[in-house]
Amino acid sequence: MLDFYNIKDGFPESSIRFQNNIREVLDRNLASQINTLWNENRFANEIKDVLANIGAFGELKPINNNSPLNYLEYGLLMYELERIDSGIRSMVSVQNALTIYPINQYGSAYLKNIYLEQLQKGAVVGCFALTEEGGGSDPGGMKTTYTKKGDKYIISGQKSWVTNATFANLAIVWAKEAKTKSISGFVIPTDSSGLKICPIEDKMSLRLSPTAHIELDNVAVPLSHKLPGASGLSPALSCLAQARYGICWGVLGALESVYEEALSFSKSRFTFGTSLSSKQLIQNKLADMVSMHTKGLLLSYQLSLLLTKGMPSIAQISLAKRENARAALVSARSAREILAAHGITLSGNVIRHMLNLETVDTYEGTYDIHTLILGKTITGDPAF
Ligand code: TGC
Ligand code: FAD
Predict the structure, then answer these.
(1) Are 356 and 85 in contact, with CB atoms under 8 Å apart?
(2) CB of residue 133 inside a 6 A radius of ligand 2
(3) Regarding the domain delimited by 126-231, which CATH topology (the fold level of the hierarchy) does it fall under?
(4) Is 366 a pocket residue for ligand 2 (Cβ < 6 Å)?
(5) Which CATH number fits domain 7-121: 1.10.540.10, 2.40.50.100, 1.10.3470.10, 1.10.443.10?
(6) What are the boundaries of each domain within the chain?
(7) Using one digit for the tens of pLDDT, what is the confidence trace for 65-112?
(8) Which pLDDT score is estimated for 44?
(9) What single-letter DSSP state applies at residue 97?
(10) In whole angstroms, how far apart are CA 195 and each of 67, 148, 218?
């Protein structure tokens, strides 16, 4: 791992070995085919198998006390996944932070029994449907409703931009009670009658990670499929906090990838008689990338320590997601500039990472939304 400040010196040996092992497996099994799969706009089953084999679904549960992975290792795993592709990290984030986490945290013994083990093996895939067409930044404004009718809840509405939805077996759907408007979460099998998955085919970002809209037309859900512990908007947002932690680490993996490619290109390309790497303007770009990576790693590592001691504040997670996602995006754009024409094709990884990071900077709260969360914390005045 790129580590300009010897931050890894603070990591346990076992965590470093764990990370090296994951890197080796992903490089051996996935790296060479990623650009082709991305170009073909598909998430291959082989990827799911590789992820299942490294225990990506079984172990990524920093909130679960039984997890063999600690917070640091969870972060390092995210780092390695996103060094390959943000879409792969996204698939795992949704499975762990946005499906296993809510069932584990807010689900009944019955729901845990039927789903957790299968999810952890990767035999069942989940997705998380919070966003609606009216605006993802304001999930409290959702229009999807539920009503109790006999021994069922009837759910109607529309959800947008749902990662994993095209191949998910279940969806965690957030809806408002039709009269009281109180928000609850439901675990809904995606083959339920009245539930329609509408794939988004034309994404120019995260092409490895399928995304879909979900229409719910009077979907009847057994009473047992409501998350009993999830009442109000806060439980939904608490899942986002878990996912944002993973993103803080993940994007640094993508940053390392674009930096390494730009550095290597700068050494082998000669203009005006000398290598690009000897030009001051190129060195400026590379120095900025290393600085941003170093600061990002310090933030992520400190966040892992805060998580280990107890939950960090919402704003502390926001600050790291905002900084690190933007740092990776800026670095990818800068690496693309260094590669110039070579940077716009899939002969390398830079343009793919750059386009992916446009999404990562947007989802799980846009850069500006995290600015407003920080602003509210600093001033006490919500400016949403
Ligand atoms: P607000 O009044 O601020 O909060 C409502 C209640 O929730 C509490 N809360 C949280 N609780 C736990 N964790 C968090 N992160 C929380 N943030 C807020 C808050 O204390 C309050 O509790 P209570 O008891 O007082 O009711 O709500 P608001 O409606 O003003 O919301 C504002 C805002 C901007 C903070 C929030 O809605 C927001 O974060 N917007 C961005 C939405 C977002 O990030 N959506 C992501 C969708 S999922 C996704 O993109 C997956 S991508 C795939 C991948 O992850 O890889
Ligand atoms: P909007 O909320 O409409 O915002 C538009 C613009 O206005 C943004 O620039 C925003 O920063 C700005 N803005 C909004 N409010 C304010 C304000 N008060 N003041 C100033 N500026 C403001 N969602 C899920 O629920 N589950 C998923 O699995 C999921 N996966 C996704 C996968 C992809 C590939 C993408 C692109 C999105 C995904 N999302 C998912 C949705 C994602 O969380 C939202 O796109 C994101 O929260 C932003 O919402 P929006 O796109 O509707 O933008």
Answers:
(1) yes
(2) no
(3) Butyryl-CoA Dehydrogenase, subunit A; domain 2 (2.40.110)
(4) yes
(5) 1.10.540.10
(6) 7-121, 126-231, 234-379
(7) 455 578 999 999 999 999 999 999 999 999 999 999 999 999 999 999
(8) 78
(9) I
(10) 33, 18, 8
Classify strands 126-129 and 170-177 as parallel, antiparallel or unpaired: parallel
The model's pLDDT over 12-32, given as tens digits with 9 standing for 90+, comes to 998 999 999 999 999 999 999
Same fold, 7-121 and 126-231: no
User: Is the shortest distance between the CB of 140 and ligand 2 below 6 Å?
Assistant: no
Name the residue with the closest Cα to ligand 1, atom 11: 234
Tokens of 190: 């995606």
**Closest CA to ligand 2's atom 42:** 363
| Cα 262 to averaged position of ligand 1 atoms, centre (Å) | 36
Ligand 2 geometric centre to CA of 176 (Å)? 19
Asked about 80 being catalytic, the answer comes back as no
Closest CA to 213 of 133, 142, 139, 141: 133
Ligand 1 binding pocket mutation candidate from 142, 209, 237, 245 (most atoms within 8 A of CB):
237
| Cα(151)–Cα(72) distance, integer angstroms | 43
Given the structure tokens 């390392």, which residue do they identify? Answer: 256
pLDDT exceeds cutoff 90 at 43: no
List, in order, residues 6 or more apart from 363 with CB less than 8 Å away: 136, 161
Helix, strand, coil abundance in the chain, percent, nearest 5: 60, 15, 25
- Annotated catalytic residue: which of 73, 256, 323, 364? 364
Query: 254 C-alpha vs ligand 2 centroid, how far in Å?
Result: 21
Do strands 183-189 and 211-222 pair parallel, antiparallel, or not at all (unpaired)?
unpaired
Give the per-residue pLDDT at 64. Answer: 47
Q: What is the pLDDT of residues 262-283, one digit of tens each?
A: 999 999 999 999 999 999 999 9
What whole-number distance in Å separates Cα of residue 158 and Cα of residue 142? 9
Q: Which residues contact 74 (CB under 8 A, 6 or more apart)?
A: 60, 61, 62, 67, 245, 246, 249
The confidence score (pLDDT) of residue 60 equals 46
Residue 299 has pLDDT above 50, yes or no: yes
pLDDT at 223: 98
Where does 234-379 sit in CATH, by number? 1.20.140.10
